Amino acid sequence: MPSQRILSGRGLVFLAVLVAAAVLVPVLSLAVPPASPFHLSAYAVTLVGKYLCYALLALALDLVWGYCGILSLGHGAFFALGGYAMGMYLMRQIGARGTYANPNLPDFMVFLNWHDLPVTWWGFSSFTYAMAMVLLVPGLLALVFGYFAFRSRVTGVYLSIITQALTYALLLAFFRNEMGFGGNNGLTDFKDILGFDIQSAGTRAALFSASCAALALGYVVAAAVTASKFGQVLVAIRDAESRTRFLGYRVETYKAAVFTLSAMMAGVAGALYVPQVGIINPGEFAPANSIEAVIWVAVGGRGTLVGAALGAVLVNWGKTFFTGVFPEYWLFLLGGLFVGVTLFLPQGILGLVDRLTAPRRPEPPAERPVAPDEQVLPAPVAE
Amino acid sequence: MTDPVLTSSLLYLDDVRVSFDGYKALRGLSLVLAPNEMRAIIGPNGAGKTTMMDVITGKTRPDTGTVFFGGSVDLTKRDEAEIANLGIGRKFQKPTVFENHSVDTNVLLALKAPRGAFDTLFGRAARDRRERIDGILRRIRLWDHRARRAGDLSHGQKQWLEIGMLLAQDPKLLLVDEPVAGMTDSETATTAELLREIARDHAVVVVEHDMAFVRDLGVKVTVLHEGAVLAEGPLDQVSADPRVVEVYLGR
Question: Is the dihedral angle over the CA atoms B62, B68, B69, B74 positive or is it negative?
């Protein structure tokens, strides 16, 4: 019992797939000649790399929603903040190669007639500093937000609404030119990362492998956290918050801690996403993005980690396919998918797999009938 | 803060008043409990039994009044987690266990141990943990069910598990709200036996409607009515009190 294994058989398969992809994809993209049917185009590599970033975001969301019952509808904000931190580093790498050839200021600042680099941009020429910000900015925001929200015992729908408000407020703020993050247009026209051409097939393959590694690391961290006693307390909070409190656990501390960890993982996902798509703009803060991430987790299977990652990849692969074939129907399909999963697959795809493959459990011994007021499992979606 | 007169009592409530939107749930409740004493609290619905438990465990702050624990600790200034860690355990009316955890893990999570997030994330388990969990599981008659998911237990078993979780906390005082509601007669008898066992080394306050069960416990009874104490004493004595008969027993 208490000392659970951190990695299940499923988890090991998941990690093996990621390691294989991290090695094979660059080989198929770089070493196999374009004429070969096994060649992977840079476009395909980037597309799947993008899915992996979404998978890491889904994993982060599953940690708070699936294990602790915190339905965050604003996780896209942490993803976008991580993305902006990376974008700022990439902007500083452009140097004097911008349209205005200003060695000290990014193009949009020259355009706005600014003369000095704002304080918020200081240090972003350093990759190390930028990577620290990728973790610290989302983490700090989540810590402060979580401290106040959880201490005030905001839970359930109300918490979901304020997380949604959080990302919407950031969306509006980042749209403003005065914020100094490129306003409406965001940050783009990146040239290179760590001295490598960001457009080259080699860099793209490296970013893909880095995304695999980040997802694998994120998975191992999340699996270790959920297998620890800390993780058992998270599930206890999800299922019976006041019982946990009356046992003497500080529920607000646990929630703030896991929310912060999750936000940092989301920030890393955003940071890997931006160099692969080549742009970050305030649209990434759109509330709809955060809701979509919740759908990925629900589709794959809440509280399974692997399922969340799988859901993100599958739904986004479907999105790529359907927006190509029937662009106008995608949103209806997505909405229908969420309703369908909620109604028919409450445990998502992995839950279905478990049900189909599990050996039939012996019937529990006959017991007295269930009392009318007996507690039934709350439906976590409605919480 | 410390009143020398109070130090001998484990729990001391004096003139506690609580109102919700004008409704007076407690109107000057006073109660004194000695260490290792077992007390039954009875009273009709709305008498303030659950509100009293809420005040003691920090869920509800009283408008006025004094609540001391262990003679010197002011409970009105602490929150639920602090009060739990001071040594007050609470069992809810509806059995509340961690449905998705095994019976074993339920007891483990309740076991007295550092409660901080850092401790549970990186801490090492105490060596005697297994023995303590096993001892509790035997005591609450769930040893054979230890690997089962708590949500799959019967209603009565969940009640016992919750009592076991209180034991694991090793509190000085257990508050038990209607432990036999919805139980069969044999489960009720077992529960009474279990509580008497526990009362040997813990103070216990039991709120209960079931008179046969209260008689079975054979302890001092406090009758609450409209948020204050109406009568106190052995069950035979209070049930002979005409005021008690009028508000409660006679109905």
Answer: positive
